[in-house]
# Entry
Amino acid sequence: MTTNKVTAINTATAIKPLTSAIRKPAAFPMRKPEHPGVFLQRCYLTPLGISQSDLARILGVSRRRVNEIVNGQRAISADTALKLAAHFNTTPMFWLEKQQLWELYRALHSNPPVNLR
# Structure
């Protein structure tokens, strides 16, 4: 019976640092991450000389969709991540992680702040 109490206490103390880290925005990078569309433009389109229209045609999506992504007005969906990964020889998770980091930063810095308790 004493063992169960000790296990429960150890589990609770093991979880506490993790939850307190989640509650504190300081646990996340302080720098604002780059929107994945801005990253796409800066690191892929411009250096490779690919226009937004060209990329739209290559990926089989509308020019508007590519333009909104590049201008930070649209998220990179799973479908778009698959297409970008296939064309630029990356993984879909590469693009989705960038999108998720962007969304997490925005959620943490939104008004009113999110209560994570």
